[in-house]
């Protein structure tokens, strides 16, 4: 499936791309450009909010409320419609909360998406990467963080190891509003018994029930049990392979590994390479291209695959 990369003041700016800022509705404007105008997702609109749905895949709903300034909030839904309860103080997103992921019981305030550290129209850089049925949205909310403090959210279908899985749709972002420099989406766990903050799937591998909390893991041996992507690990370049080593990023329930995050890679070295660096793979990763993102005050790295090779393993 073709990969779409859109950006604003980060390795260039895509034609027509709008700015992100600490003002109400700015994220909705960016998502409209990325999801609706460019990729053909449908949108049901309210005031400073939107409910988005992909044209193919599992087609679960993403509800985004953007009525405040420095951050927006979101939930996934099995079914969703905009209604009058999407207030500026308590966004409810849907007439049926039991179909949400996360549910209000799992995460009462919904998952925040940082936009800016100041409530004004100062522009913040962003990058959007998508295969059409899922996407990553990355931005630098801090005024001085364009090369050091990027955060990331994900919504859409992930690669499932279960045959016939139609509920393998995930949502992940910061666990709370104050998490914008800790960045839950790049945090890792190292045992199957642990789950991750701010990561949920629409349903379990059983295909019944509702929202389920998930865990995110990678390669604990070569990364030295790193708590974040690209935070600890072996020396760079690898003395054996002679280059940068990447680990896949997997999602699990307590019963076992459910699948992997599409197009997301964990650098198995401490803070290897700089933000915005691009490179091509070799060996098993030959034919793939990648882009590096820096986060948590330049202490971590996460890598997104930018070639049309997601899911080809």
Characterise the protein shown here.
- With 313 residues, this protein is mostly beta strands.
- It has one domain.
- The protein is 4% helix and 32% strand.
- The chain contains 1 helix and 20 strands.
- The protein has one helix at 26-38; strands spanning 4-8, 42-46, 49-53, 61-65, 71-77, 100-101, 111-114, 126-130, 134-139, 151-157, 159-160, 169-172, 199-201, 212-213, 215-217, 246-253, 256-267, 278-280, 289-295, 300-305.
- Strands 1-8-9-10-12-13-14 form a 7-stranded antiparallel sheet, with no helix packed on it.
- The protein is globular and about 55 Å long.
Task: Write a brief structural summary.
This protein is mainly β and 313 residues long. The chain has one helix and 20 strands.
**Average of pLDDT:** 91
Major beta sheet, specifics? Answer: 7 strands, antiparallel
Oligomer state equals: single chain
Q: Helical residue percent?
A: under 10%
Whole-number count of domains = 1
Structural class: mainly beta
Strand order of the largest sheet: 1-8-9-10-12-13-14
Tell me what portion of residues adopts beta-strand conformation: 25-35%
The secondary-structure element order is EHEEEEEEEEEEEEEEEEEEE
Radius of gyration: 18 Å
Low-confidence stretches: 84-98
Q: How far is the first residue's CA from the last residue's CA?
A: 14 Å
Number of helices: 1
Number of strands: 20
- 3D shape: globular
């Amino acid at each position: 499936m073709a990969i779409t990369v859109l950006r604003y003041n980060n390795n260039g700016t895509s034609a027509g791309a709008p700015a992100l800022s600490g003002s109400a509705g700015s994220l909705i404007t960016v998502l409209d450009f990325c999801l609706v105008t460019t990729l053909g997702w449908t949108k049901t609109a309210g005031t400073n909010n939107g409910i988005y749905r992909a044209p193919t895949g599992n087609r679960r709903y993403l509800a985004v409320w953007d009525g405040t300034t420095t951050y927006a909030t979101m939930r996934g839904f099995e079914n969703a419609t905009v209604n009058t309860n999407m207030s500026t103080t308590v966004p409810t997103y849907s007439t049926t909360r039991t179909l949400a992921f996360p549910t209000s019981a799992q995460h009462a305030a919904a998952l925040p998406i940082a936009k800016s550290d100041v409530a004004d129209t100062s522009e913040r850089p962003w990058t959007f990467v998508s295969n059409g049925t899922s996407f990553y949205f990355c931005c630098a909310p801090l005024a001085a963080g364009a090369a050091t403090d990027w955060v990331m959210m994900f919504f859409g279908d992930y690669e499932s190891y279960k045959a016939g899985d139609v509920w393998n749709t995930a949502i992940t972002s910061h666990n709370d509003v104050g998490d914008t420099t800790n960045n839950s989406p790049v945090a890792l766990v190292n045992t199957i018994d642990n789950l991750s903050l701010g990561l949920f799937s629409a349903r379990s591998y059983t295909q019944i029930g509702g929202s389920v909390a998930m865990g995110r893991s990678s390669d604990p041996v070569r990364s030295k049990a790193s708590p974040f992507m690209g935070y600890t690990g072996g020396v760079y370049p690898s003395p054996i392979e002679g280059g940068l080593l990447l680990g896949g990023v997997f999602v699990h329930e307590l019963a076992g590994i459910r699948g992997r995050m599409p197009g997301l890679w964990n650098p198995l070295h401490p803070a290897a390479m700089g933000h915005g660096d691009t490179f091509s793979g070799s060996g098993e990763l030959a034919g793939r291209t990648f882009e590096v993102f820096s986060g948590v005050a330049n202490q971590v790295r996460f890598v997104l695959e930018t070639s049309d090779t997601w899911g080809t393993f």
